[in-house]
Amino acid sequence: MNREKPIAKIREKMGLTQAELSQMIGVSENTIANWEKGSASKWIRHLSRLCKILNCSLEDLEPDKQLQERSRPDLTPNILDTVKSYCVALFKNDKKTVTKISSFATLHDNQLRYWLDQADQIIDQCQCDAKEQVDCEIVINTLILQNLSIQLNYVLPNQITLDKFCELLKTVTLSHDFLSKYIFFNDQHFSRKLILQTRYLSVYVIGWEPSHESWMHHHGNSLDAILVLEGEMTHWLLSPEECKSKNIPFEAYPSGQKFSGKAEKFTVGDWVFIDRHYAHQIANSSAKRLATLHVRFGAPPDDDKWETTEDQPVIIWHQMEQYQVILQNVNRV
Ligand SMILES: [Fe+2]
């Protein structure tokens, strides 16, 4: 690891003091000292200002770090807890706590500042959209989904390993109250409801009445994860070799082919991960309803079978559009 202090070196070469540089950038002198020690993260807009003022490139400032790694927003458990406290205070109109958290973030924690700003934007958007009643639940769950999307947007779908995908998804702690808004059942066939979709990421809920089942199918080069939300899921999994030898079709070409071999049972809270080119089949063999959350990374599912109802929260869509704009700006620098 490079132990040099490039910011301090370039600043001194230009004859600037920490105080002068801090004034030029618009941050505290302490922040500059922490950047130079490498003990505080630098937000992207500060990095570009730093480059301009010090007349250098990003690589000169960060010789041992990937820029995207440093600037990638990450909703850590600590930040999430603080954002929750911020939202609770905001909805209670507890201005003192809101100001305290907000000021702390502005002065000391750029990551927290980013997520507080995102929370504010979600609330603003909900309030603009008279259809949507905003509460803490929707703000926090939207941020969790947004964070998943951000983390996955830094890799191409064919570059992430199943292990990394699993690790990431286990941090996605969406509340049941939030997800229950998407659980929907149809007497005739299983019912899919979309929560969010970006270019590669699709998150949706499927409701299965007793006896509903899918065909045996595979998702090609996409990764898939399933979380049981309600009931019991019966699941069959075939290796890529078996999938090939049995001529199992891609999901978009239902063959009517059903598998009756050895199945596994999964209950509430269980995750099932399906690696690339594996085939699988889901059934509700129980007497109760089954609801499953699906996270697909790769090609989106065939999307003409989504259930749509008026009560579906729409904020995710707005938020994702906003997020895409932010990401493009980050990549352009
Ligand atoms: Fe599937």
Give the termini separation. 24 Å
Overall average residue pLDDT: 81
Low-pLDDT regions: 321-333
Sheet bearing the most strands, described?
Answer: 5 strands, antiparallel
Percentage of residues in DSSP E strands: 15-25%
Question: What is the assigned CATH homologous superfamily of the domain at 176-313?
Answer: Jelly Rolls
Please tell me about this protein's structure.
It is elongated and about 75 Å long. The strands form two sheets. It has a five-stranded antiparallel sheet with strand order 1-2-9-4-7. Strands 3-8-5-6 form a four-stranded antiparallel sheet. With 333 residues, it is an alpha+beta fold. A hairpin with a 3-residue loop joins strand 1 and strand 2 (201-208). The relative contact order is 0.12. The protein has helices spanning 6-13, 18-25, 29-37, 44-54, 58-61, 67-71, 77-91, 95-108, 110-128, 136-153, 162-169, 176-179, 240-245, 315-332, and strands at 191-197, 201-208, 217-218, 223-230, 232-238, 264-267, 271-274, 279-283, 290-297. The protein is built from 14 helices and nine strands. Among the domains are: 6-71, Orthogonal Bundle (434 Repressor (Amino-terminal Domain)); 176-313, Sandwich (Jelly Rolls), CATH 2.60.120. Helix 7 (77-91) crosses helix 9 (110-128) and helix 10 (136-153) packs parallel to helix 14 (315-332). The protein starts with 5 loop residues before the first helix and ends with a helix. Residues 217, 219, 224, 251, 280 line the site of fe (ii) ion. Fe (ii) ion binds at residues 217, 219, 224, 251, 280.
